Amino acid sequence: MLAVLDGRQTHTVAFPTPDHREDAQLALWLLYELCYRGFPGVAEELEWDPALLALRRSLEEEFEAILRSRFTPPEQVD
Questions:
Q1: Which of 51, 43, 44 minimizes the C-alpha distance to 27?
Q2: In whole angstroms, what is the distance from residue 44 CA to residue 52 CA?
Q3: Among 24, 38, 72, 77, which is least packed, fewest CB within 10 Å?
Q4: HEC per residue, the chain
Q5: pLDDT tens, 15-50?
Q6: Domain count, the chain
Q7: Looking at the domain assignment, is residue 72 inside a domain?
């Protein structure tokens, strides 16, 4: 992921496997930070790069699925 952001690698970013969940969380944070403040030496237009946006969506969906599998919603209260 860092190699993509600093231009050492093309936009081909593989989705992290379940064995690399910590990497997935770091990648998600990097993608969010790219939108908030950016990084020195990283092109601002990468914020809207279609491949990186698709990766962010995939990471968000995976993270949400993990959270939903661990927690149940509270019961309805009158």
A1: 51
A2: 13
A3: 77
A4: CHHHHCCCCCCCCCCCCHHHHHHHHHHHHHHHHHHHCCCCCCCHHHHHCHHHHHHHHHHHHHHHHHHHHHCCCCCCCC
A5: 555 556 678 888 888 899 888 888 888 888 888 888
A6: 1
A7: no
